[in-house]
Every structure is written in C-alpha cells, then in structure tokens.
From TrEMBL:
Catalytic activity: (R)-5-diphosphomevalonate + ATP = isopentenyl diphosphate + ADP + phosphate + CO2
Protein's recorded name: Diphosphomevalonate decarboxylase
Enzyme class: lyase
Residues covered by the Diphosphomevalonate decarboxylase-like N-terminal domain: 12-183
Source organism of this protein record: Schizosaccharomyces cryophilus (strain OY26 / ATCC MYA-4695 / CBS 11777 / NBRC 106824 / NRRL Y48691)
Length: 354
C-alpha cells in the first residue's frame, strides 16, 4: 500500500522596501542593524506558490525551487527554518498523543515563482515567506504571522515582511536571541489602497554582489552607514509610519527616494565600492524628477534594491500620467529589457494565502 502523504500549499507575495534593510548586527541569527518598512505587492501579479509535503516514503528533506533540486540539509538557511518548525511540531506531538508523528518524516517542498520571466526581482522574500508558512501549516502550528516572521527572517531578512499584506515594518529588536526582531503590520491595505507600483526592468540578470555579502562589506567599511543606522533610520521609520497613517503621499515619496539614495550612497561608501545602479537606473531617477516637476507636486517616487531595476510608487489617480510617461521612456530609450513588459504595473495587496 502507498504511504500516506501529508500536504499543504500556500502562496506568498513580494514586498518592496521604502526604508531599506541593509546591514546585519548578528549574521548567524540574521538580525538587522536597523528597522525597515515595506509595501506588499499584489499576489495577482507576483507571488511564490509553495507546497510542503511529508511522507514515510521520502528519503531526505528536499526542495525543488523553480524546477532545480536542492538538498535542504546542505543549505544553512533552509535547515535553520526546518529545524525550528520541526521542533515546534514535536512539541505539539508530545502534548497531544492523538497527533500523527509527522515531525519524524522527511519533507519535500516544491516552490515556484509566477513572476514575469524578466521581472528581475529578488525572489528570496516571497520564497522564504512561502517556505516558512507552508511547513508551519503542514505541521498545524497555531502561530501568528509575527511568530512566523521570526523564522522567515532567518531564511532571508526581507522575507519576514512578506508574511503581512499592506504596509509592514520589520522592527529590528534589542534582544540577543532575536526573539523581538519580527515583522508587524503598520496599516492594512484597506487603509490606503490607492497605492500602485510600476516595476521597470533594466536588467533581468542575476546581481553581481549578493545582498548578504554586500551588506557585510558595508557594515565593515562604510562610515556613512554608521551614521545612517544610528542617526537617520530611527527618525525616518517614525516619519514614514506617520506619512502612511495620514495618507501623505508627498512625504511618503520623499522619504522613499531619499532612503533609496542613501542606501546606494552607503554602497558607494563601501570599500571596495558596490555599484547596483547603472546608467539606465540613473536615467529613471531623472524621469521621475521630471514627472514630478511637470506635475508641480510629487506624484511618483523611485526606489532601487540591490540591482538596477526601478520600482516607482504612485497613486491610482495619477496612474495614466505616470505609466504613460514610463512606457514612453522604455519604448524610446536604450537600456530597458523587453519594452513590451516595461513597466509592469502592480497593485498592492493583503495577504490571503490559502
Ligand atoms: C536591498 O533580505 O535579500 O532588498 O537577509 O541576507 O537574505 P538577506 O538579505 P535580503 O536583503 C534585502 C536588501 C534590500 C532592502 C530591503 O528589502 O529592505
């Protein structure tokens, strides 16, 4: 007789930070040097779908990521997540004798992104959020998204923010254990549902310097970074939360752009320097400035992660104006991938994974 297979499928969204996480104070536990804040994008457009299963017939913990097979035990980040979730399941099994002892079975996890081929987006946030939630649900853990975020954080820092919809903060915490370094929702999507993003793909290639190694070089060598984490980010986090609460797009936009600029300035201040932006990225910064100058107010805000692709925030009411201008740029200028897809316009969303 075939062995029973226990299974659970979830999906998780991408998030794009407006106050950037960059720097670890504890590499092992993946604890950040500063708090960060992001907006969660709609799963209709961008999501990772993950199925976790376990069975007596499985021989080892294995992950299939977009079709590539990986032994979970050879990845420190994946193993940490699995160990914590498995031991929580063991705890439940000890308390309740009627539960199947599935913590003793090997796991198979299949994960797939639905991102447009050339989205060029970092997928680790949605990936680790979906991984954590799929295994937690398979194990029937009665955990809140904030509790799950502590696990997802250890897979990839930005992943902890993908467990919530809307506007999300990752509070850096103070404890050495990392127990208080978790994500919390600042406001749900319904609070300010008019927010939109356009993703402009300057390059779909894998980034040259990974976030993990890039941020470690910055922590080790940048003096500007020291000032950023101590004197600038704490106030900016408060100001950004206020702007979101008051639906103040101009302040939201200014903080978003200056924080992206400062993050890239810290990369340049790293020794040897790290360059994530290219000429195409810098051209989009000018275009957004021109959009705002022509509108006579700030209606669009750019931000860039650890790569050259632009994410532009705007409100629904300015959608036609902002998108038409960005389309014209990608059609008429060199440097953009597949102009048919540029920009990809995405709504923001709540997390409703089933
Ligand atoms: C620039 O979350 O990918 O996108 O914790 O090492 O996996 P690790 O880093 P990761 O870094 C994301 C950096 C960023 C900013 C952000 O998302 O806040």
């Amino acid at each position: 007789m075939a062995e029973k297979v226990y299974q659970c499928t979830v999906s998780a969204p991408v998030n794009i930070a407006v106050i950037k996480y960059w720097g670890k104070r504890d590499v092992g536990l993946n604890l950040p040097t500063n708090s960060s804040l992001s907006v969660t994008l709609s799963q209709d457009d961008l999501r990772t779908v993950t199925t976790a299963s376990c069975s007596k017939s499985f021989e080892k913990d294995t992950l299939w990521l977009n079709g590539h097979v990986e032994d979970i035990s050879t990845s420190k980040r994946l193993s940490v997540c699995v160990e914590e979730l498995r031991s929580a399941r063991q705890g439940l099994e000890k308390e309740d004798d009627s539960l199947d002892k599935i913590s003793q079975l090997k796991l198979h996890v299949v994960s797939k992104n639905n991102f447009p081929t050339a989205a060029g987006l970092a997928s680790s946030a949605a990936g680790y959020a979906a991984f954590t939630e799929a295994v937690a649900r398979l194990y029937g853990l009665p955990w809140t998204p904030t509790q799950l975020s502590r696990i997802a954080r250890q897979g990839s820092g930005s992943a902890c923010r993908s467990l919530f919809g809307g506007y999300v903060a990752w509070e850096m915490g103070e404890l050495h254990s990392g127990a208080d370094s978790v994500a919390v929702q600042v406001e749900p999507v319904e609070h300010w549902p008019e927010m939109r993003v356009a993703i402009m793909v300057a390059s779909a290639a894998k980034k040259g310097v990974s976030s993990t190694s890039g941020m470690q070089s910055t922590v080790a060598s940048s003096t500007l970074f020291q000032k950023r984490v101590k004197n600038i980010v704490p106030e900016r986090m408060q100001a950004m939360k206020q702007a979101i609460r008051k639906h103040d797009f101009e302040t939201f936009a200014k903080l978003t752009m200056t924080d992206s600029n400062q993050f890239h300035a810290c990369c340049l201040d790293t020794f040897p320097p790290i360059f994530y932006l290219n000429d195409t990225s810098r051209a989009i910064i000018r275009v957004v400035e021109n959009i705002n100058a022509a509108a006579g107010k700030t209606v669009a805000a750019y931000t860039f992660d650890a790569g050259p692709n632009a994410v532009v925030y705007f409100l629904e009411e300015n959608s036609a104006y902002v998108l038409d201008t960005l389309y014209a740029v990608s059609r008429n200028a060199q440097g953009w991938e597949d102009s048919e897809r540029n920009p990809t316009s995405v709504k923001i969303d709540d997390v409703a994974s089933e």
